[in-house]
Design goal:
Layout: E1 2-5, E2 18-22, E3 26-31, H1 39-47, E4 52-55, E5 62-64, H2 65-76, E6 81-83, E7 90-95, E8 99-103, H3 105-112, E9 117-121, E10 126-128, E11 133-139, E12 143-145, H4 146-156, E13 162-166, E14 171-177, H5 179-182, H6 190-199, E15 204-211, H7 215-227, E16 232-236, H8 247-253, E17 257-261, E18 272-276, E19 279-284, H9 287-290, H10 295-303, H11 311-315
Parallel strand pairs: 14-15, 14-16, 16-19
Antiparallel strand pairs: 1-4, 2-3, 5-12, 6-7, 7-11, 8-10, 8-13, 9-11, 17-18, 18-19
Helix pairs in contact: 2-4, 7-8
């Protein structure tokens, strides 16, 4: 700590709080310990009778919390983010678009293992709206050892830990199966549900085919939609293991490669994911027709950022993949399917 003239204090760090008293108007802290004195502060400080200030002596190898927070922000923040004002070594990361939050969980863990550094995020794969705070970084001490920032750079390397990926709306086709619907014994209620869910993401439904429980008819409907330019195909009905439920077989025989038939997500265990080249095909179980949130709501946002999912991606949902079926659904702001 050293005493210097206030007029010479620009860029220096205050060692203590400074209280301001304006009779009948204000009494409280005007400047906080750790504040970096700016040019516009000088006149205010002088008007408060502060001709001299006690400031930290600049020491090589130590970085002020605010400067360090900027380093961490630049190191970890990726796409489609804006930032709060720096305050007390803290910066908030805010989504500047609707999209899907992607967090490099392993890099996040390794960064937080470094003493005096904090980066906190929402869950990976969280559906976010523009303006939502998705992460925050903070430096714990007022002055941090520069070596820790160097260590942070070595941990993160060229990767970014936090990104918001914009959704890419797709042309969606619905293939609805079932003799009872095909022969008009009952009214299809699945198509409207799928249409509502995909349109919330800006997708366009280019058509719906109603098929009987006939493999060839289902297979042909899938391929016809691919030829029409469909970028996502949602197959509804016929997804159980009953002998007359042939939708999974028809999807496979259409030329698609099955990623998984079955998912550790409840509701939604009979979910199927396949790809015909790069076109995702989802076999959606009946639960999606009457449960507010299911496997379809979990997987759809990832498909809509062009993430090509693997079986491992699906299997990871086993931990947390049980929906509590709350009376008032708050998804995605709940524990369901967070990985």
């Amino acid at each position: 700590m050293k005493k210097i003239k206030t007029v010479d204090a620009i860029g220096h760090i205050l060692c203590h709080d400074i209280t301001r008293i304006a009779p009948g108007k204000f009494k409280g802290r005007a400047f906080k310990k750790g504040h970096v004195v700016k040019e516009e502060d000088i006149e205010v400080l002088l008007s408060m009778g502060k001709d001299n200030l006690y400031v930290w002596e600049k020491i090589d190898g130590l970085v002020h919390e605010n400067d360090a927070a900027v380093v961490l922000k630049d190191l970890t923040a990726g796409e489609n983010l804006e930032f709060s004002e720096i305050k007390e070594g803290k910066i908030d990361f805010i989504a500047n678009t609707d999209g899907l939050l992607k967090v490099d969980v392993d890099a996040l863990l390794n960064l937080n293992l470094i003493d005096d550094i904090v980066l906190s995020t929402l869950h990976n794969n969280f559906v976010v709206k523009k303006g939502l705070k998705v992460a925050g970084t903070r430096v714990i001490p007022l002055l941090i050892d520069e070596q820790k920032l160097i260590e942070a750079k070595e941990v993160v390397k060229n990767k970014k830990i936090v990104d918001v990926i914009k959704f890419k709306p797709k042309k969606v086709a619905i293939v609805t199966t079932g003799n009872e619907i095909y022969h008009k014994r009952i009214v299809d209620k699945f198509g409207p549900v799928i249409k509502e869910k995909v349109e919330k993401f800006g997708c366009q439904v280019i058509g719906q085919a109603i098929c009987s429980d006939d493999k060839a008819m289902i297979k042909n409907a899938i391929n016809d939609f691919i030829n029409q330019g469909a970028e996502l195909i949602c197959c509804t009905g016929g997804m159980s293991v009953d002998p007359d439920d042939v939708t999974p077989t028809a999807i496979k025989e259409s030329g698609a490669e099955i990623v998984t038939y079955g998912a550790p997500i409840l509701p939604g265990a009979m979910f199927l994911l396949a790809y015909n080249k790069d076109i995702p095909i989802m076999g959606i179980p009946g639960c999606a027709m009457y449960n507010k949130t299911t496997v379809f709501d979990v997987i759809l946002p990832r498909v809509l950022i062009d993430e090509k999912l693997t079986k491992l991606d699906i299997v990871k949902y086993g931990h947390g993949g049980l929906c509590m079926s709350c009376e008032v659904c708050t998804y995605p702001s709940c524990n369901f399917a967070k990985i």
